[in-house]
């Protein structure tokens, strides 16, 4: 299906662009609201966790999802079964989240690691689900799901930002976990 007035842009490509924008905006808003609520040291911890999460997503895409989908396009058969991709995402999230014990510069790396593990697991599993929706030409559904996530992040982070006395990096990570 083509969209009138936009030349050669298909509806699927437009939804893909919208989805990417929603994910990027969600991460940006989370960081901006975190900056308003956290001390500089806590913001550093939170930012490192987000950096590790986005790096883990990129590594998962580069090593598992993209090669599998490229093979599927050339051979016609799915190269990465959904169950397998999800079963890899979960332990990867646990391992990477646990690494916060050694990476986080903050005062309480144990709490930060405990809050990071569910975030990493959820972010990696959500990325697998998003990739499968995009592969099935269901970019509109992926954008809708990411819109709900964006709204939850904005709502929950705004609530925490209004009471900065209670805000810590661990608190915001648990809020992010709840949103995802």
Mind explaining what this structure looks like?
This protein is globular. It is an all-alpha fold and 180 residues long. The two termini are 31 Å apart. It has seven helices and no strands. The longest helix is centred in the N-terminal third of the chain and has 36 residues, at 40-75.
**What distance lies between the first and last C-alpha atoms, to the nearest angstrom?**
31 Å
**Strand count, sense and closure of the main sheet?**
none
**Please, how many helices?**
7
**Count of DSSP strands:** 0
Coarse morphology: globular
Mean pLDDT: 78
Low-confidence stretches: none
**Rg, please?**
18 Å
β-strand amount: under 5%
What is the helical fraction, as a range of percent? Answer: over 70%
Q: Which structural category fits the helices and strands?
A: mainly alpha
N-to-C order of helices and strands: HHHHHHH
């Amino acid at each position: 299906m083509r969209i009138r007035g936009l030349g050669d842009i298909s509806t699927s490509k437009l939804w893909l662009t919208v989805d990417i924008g929603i994910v990027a905006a969600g991460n940006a808003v989370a960081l901006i609201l975190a900056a308003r609520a956290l001390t500089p040291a806590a913001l550093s911890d939170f930012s490192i966790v987000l950096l590790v999460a986005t790096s883990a997503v990129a590594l998962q895409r580069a090593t598992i999802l993209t090669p599998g989908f490229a093979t599927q396009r050339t051979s016609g058969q799915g190269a990465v079964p959904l169950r397998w991709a999800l079963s890899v995402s979960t332990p990867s999230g646990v391992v990477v989240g646990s690494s916060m014990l050694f990476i986080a510069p903050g005062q309480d790396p144990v709490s930060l690691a405990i809050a990071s593990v569910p975030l990493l697991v959820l972010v990696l599993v959500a990325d697998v689900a998003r990739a499968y929706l995009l592969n099935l030409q269901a970019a509109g559904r992926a954008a809708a799901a990411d819109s709900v996530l964006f709204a939850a992040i904005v709502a929950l982070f705004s609530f925490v930002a209004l009471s900065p006395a209670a805000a810590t990096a661990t608190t915001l990570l648990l809020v992010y976990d709840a949103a995802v």
